[in-house]
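dumping this here before i forget
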Amino acid sequence: MKKVSVFLISLFLMTNMIFASHKAEINKIIEDYYRGDPVDCGEIMNLQAAITSSEIEDYILIHTALSLVMTSVTENSRIKLMLDNFEKEMQKTMTSSKDEEIVHLYSDYLYTKFYWSKSNSQIIESLQRLYVKNAFFYHSKKALLDMAVWYINAADSTTTNWNYFVLQQEPFIDKAGLTDVELFNICISYCIFYLKVYDTKKAEFYLNRAKEIFPNSVMTAIVEDNWGKGKIGY
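structure:
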């Protein structure tokens, strides 16, 4: 009986080691990228090869890391193909998923494509479906902020109703329990929103807040540089 117990405990520990989550490791890579620290593309590719779609949160996160890598390479058809295949896999999952966190993580992945994609219309359409779904089902502060981000992408000084919705969700920024990366992206989005409605004081406030989170991020540098050139966003 004792030998059986030892065997079962050993089997349990081995199973946990095999299926251990890579979430902390991947999140560190993503945060390193936002900080402007060097990121090892080879390490990300190795992790991607080791993670299966059954590990859904890790699977989405590692492809988010791959998408971020695309912002710093001039051409990488292999990564682009991997991301295309990943999105095809995820279409069915997102249609049937009722898990708020899974939908939110995939929305975050799609958001990173704004940094490098040449065509944003498909991203905006996909994000709309996901954001509406999360906002409708969960009514959480994070889901409503996600929806505000979608409106920001389509908003300008004339879209009164959309702008009102964006402003209504603004108080949730400090109440939604966002991670540093999520808060950073929200600040960049609200910076862009206020530039669109010609409130440069609030735009500067959110840009500076983003800089406080990740002072050396290439994202803030791009937004600031474009602002100086009279262009809004990326």
